[in-house]
## 1
Amino acid sequence: MTLHFEEPSASHPAPSPAASSSPAPSPSSPPTSCLNCSSSPISYQSPTCRHPSLCNGCAMKQATGGKCKVCGEKFFELQRI
Ligand SMILES: [Zn+2]
Ligand SMILES: [Zn+2]
C-alpha cells in the first residue's frame, strides 16, 4: 500500500503593501504680491477673468487697459478686491 502525501501548495505570494501614499496636493494659495512689480500686495483684479494680479500702483498705470498677468486676457478696466 502506498500513501500519497499531497503537500498543500503554500505558494501564496506575500501581499505587497500598496500603501504608496501620494503626498496630498497642497492648496494653491493665491499670489499675494503684485505680478507686475512683485513688491506690493495685490489689490486689483481684472473683472473679466477675475485674476488678482496688480497692486495699487500698477493698477493706476494700467487702469485703462492691459493684459492679465495670469492668463493674458485683455482687460479694459480693473476691479478693486
Ligand atoms: Zn505692482
Ligand atoms: Zn486672467
Note: The longest strand covers residues 42-45.
## 2
Amino acid sequence: MKKLKKLIKKEIERQKETINLIPSENYVSKDILYALGSPLTNKYSEGYPGKRYYPGNKIYDEIEEYVKNLALRAFNLSEREWSVNVQPYSGSPANIAVYLALMKPKEKLLGFSLTSGGHLTHGHYVNYSGKLFKVKQYSVNPKTGLLDYEEIYKLAKKFKPKVIVSGITAYPRIIDFKKFGEIATEVGAFHLADISHIAGLVLAKLHPSPFPYADVVTTTTHKTLRGPRGAIIFMRKELEETINKSVFPGLQGGPHNNVIAAMGIMFEEAMKKNFINYQKQIISNSKKLAEELIKAGFNLWTNGTDNHLMVIDLKPLNLLGKTAEELLEQANILANRNSLPNDQSPFNPSGLRLGTPAVTTRGMKEREMIKIAEFIKRILINRENPFKIKKEVVDFLKNFPLPY
Ligand SMILES: Cc1ncc(COP(=O)(O)O)c(C=O)c1O
C-alpha cells in the first residue's frame, strides 16, 4: 500500500504538471472519483436488472436502471426506439460484443483503416475484429485527407458487408453519418457508429448525430464525455436481446458496478447547461490551436480541424512522430504519434495527434492555446532545449488546477 500510495501521489503530481494534449484523455470530477472508489466495487451482478445470477442486487438494479435512463435522456433518445447497455468494460469489448451479435465469424465487416483515422477494433488485422471477420477497410482521399463517400459506397456495393463501421480516432473533420446510413441501407448492412471520440460533441449537438442513421451506436465514456473508463452500447429496440446476450453471457461476466454508477454521475454532469459551453470551448480551443500551429509553420493534416483534435504532418520538418512525442514529453507536454495515410511505414508514423478536451477541463481558453502552440514551436521548430521549457510549462500550469 505504501509503495502504491506513493506512486499514486506521484502520478497526481505528473498530471498536475503536464499539458495533456492526448485527445482521448480527460480528467474526471471528484464526484466521479467518489463513485469509482466506492464499495459498489464489491458486488457481483451478472445478468441485467431484475434478472441477476446473484442475490443482493436490489440496489444495483436501481442504479443500472437509473443510469440507462440517464443515458437515453442525455442523447434525447426515445425508449420506444432505443435500448442501452451500460455494462461494457471498455470501448474495445463493446465493439466486439456488437460484431459478435450481428455477425458470425468469417462474415464481412467494412471499417475505417487505422492509418486514415479509424480504430484498431474497426477491422485491423492485429485485432480480433480483423481476425474473426472478413474485412475490407476504407481510407481517406490521399489528396484531400477527407472521407470519400463515393469510394466508400463503391467499396460497400462490391464487398457487400454485413456491418459497416463509422467513427474515428484520429480524423479531424465532421463525419457524415447520414451518408454512412444511406450506404448501409443501400447494401443491406448494419450501420455501427462508434462515437467514442466525439460523444461529448454529439451530446452537446455540436457534431451531427449518428442516431437517426445507425442501428447501433457505441461510445467510450472516458474521452470527451469526461467520465470513468468504460463504454455504452445504444441499439435499436429490435437488436436489444441479441446485443445484450452478446455482452453477457457472450463476452463478459459481472458488470463493474462502481463504473456504472460513475457513468450516472457523468451523465448528470453532462446534462447541466455548462457542459454545452465546455464542449463549445473544446472546439474553439481546438480551432485556435490549429490556427496558431499553422501560423507557427506546421503542416496540419486536412489543414485544420472541425472537432476536438488535429494531426500535424511532421514530414516537412524531417521529424518522426516518435521523436516529436519524446521531445515534447521532455518539456511535460503530451501528444501522441500517429500514422498518416501517406506514411511509408506504419511502424514509423510521421503524424502527431493533439486534442483539447483535457486542457479545456483545466479551464484553458484561446489565449492559452496561443501559448501552447508557442511552446510546441519552440521545441519542434526552433529546437530549443525542452528541459528548459519544462520549467515554463510547470509555471504556466499553476493557474489551471485539476478538478481533484
Ligand atoms: C473510436 C474508438 N473506438 C474504440 C476505442 C477503444 O476503447 P478502449 O480503449 O476503451 O477499449 C477507442 C479508443 O481509443 C476509440 O478511439
Note: The pocket of pyridoxal-5'-phosphate is lined by residues 24, 90-92, 95, 119, 121, 167, 169, 194, 196-197, 220 (CB under 6 Å).
